Amino acid sequence: MTIAAVLTAAGSGSRLGHALPKAVVPVAGVPLVVHAARALLAARTADGASVTQLVVTAPAAHLDTVAALVGEVVDEAAADVRLDVVGGGRTRQESVAAGLAELTDDVDVVLVHDAARPFAPPALVARVVEAVRSGHAAVVPGLPVVDTIKRVGAGDGTGRPVLETVPRGDLVAVQTPQGFARDVLERAHAVGSGRGADETTAASDDAGLVEATGVRVWVVPGDERAAKVTTARDLMVAQALTTGAPA
Ligand SMILES: Nc1ccn([C@@H]2O[C@H](COP(=O)(O)OP(=O)(O)OP(=O)(O)O)[C@@H](O)[C@H]2O)c(=O)n1
Ligand SMILES: C[C@](O)(CO)[C@H](O)COP(=O)(O)O
């Protein structure tokens, strides 16, 4: 089994509202993309398998910065890891597709992970890989939904009408890293490529593209530490959990 990881870091972080692209914003003095890359490279399966190719998608104007930051992580890992840094696309889906194009021929398992989930622990990464290795071609980590979920209709200017309350017992909130048999993920991106140009049509995760090809996606237990940094509040929480100090 040869494992590669595509680490998405090309977003601007518009909802974060920081002067820097989100992936290079620091928590505890360390950029998010560095935290995320460290976790991916630290992960080990029960028999010692680890990520041997890391492909990072970066904003076009920050390719060199991201390459230098993640290059240090690869050096620290003291393992034989190939690093590629590529420019991202217009959407996350396009960025992942650009990352997949860099995979070396020997890769057969692919993880897709967000720099925006910098504290996904290595054990979670390993859990996803193990589930792929056990025979599931597509695996996502998920956590139970804690809020009551309602489907709503079009608004009238004062609010939106509730159409139904969705039973939440069989709902999960899905995280990254997501893991795939390479051929399944590449085919899903090829089939879904027409959706990728625009946020309104692009898949919000890779498993969604795989589902659309009729392949079953499996859920393994997620981890609260893999929470996504989307807003300024998320960043403050991440900082407080990491250092005990406000951002
Ligand atoms: N064109 C894009 C858009 C997003 N991403 C990455 O996909 C992950 C999840 O995206 P999100 O959290 O939405 O990040 P941003 O797109 O940067 O945030 P926003 O939507 O607030 O602008 C992030 O690691 C982000 O860097 C990417 O590689 N390429
Ligand atoms: C891939 C993801 O992290 C799974 O929860 C999420 O869908 C990314 O969402 P965004 O639309 O890029 O914020």
Automatic annotation (TrEMBL):
GO terms for molecular function: 2-C-methyl-D-erythritol 4-phosphate cytidylyltransferase activity. Transmembrane segments: none annotated. Gene3D superfamilies: Spore Coat Polysaccharide Biosynthesis Protein SpsA, Chain A (3.90.550.10). It catalyses: 2-C-methyl-D-erythritol 4-phosphate + CTP + H(+) = 4-CDP-2-C-methyl-D-erythritol + diphosphate. The record marks 168, 228 as: Positions MEP for the nucleophilic attack. Pathway: Isoprenoid biosynthesis; isopentenyl diphosphate biosynthesis via DXP pathway; isopentenyl diphosphate from 1-deoxy-D-xylulose 5-phosphate: step 2/6. The record marks 15, 22 as: Transition state stabilizer. InterPro entries: IspD, IspD/TarI, IspD/TarI_cytidylyltransf_bact, ISPD_synthase_CS, Nucleotide-diphossugar_trans. Belongs to the IspD/TarI cytidylyltransferase family. IspD subfamily. Catalyzes the formation of 4-diphosphocytidyl-2-C-methyl-D-erythritol from CTP and 2-C-methyl-D-erythritol 4-phosphate (MEP). This is 2-C-methyl-D-erythritol 4-phosphate cytidylyltransferase. It comes from Cellulomonas wangleii.
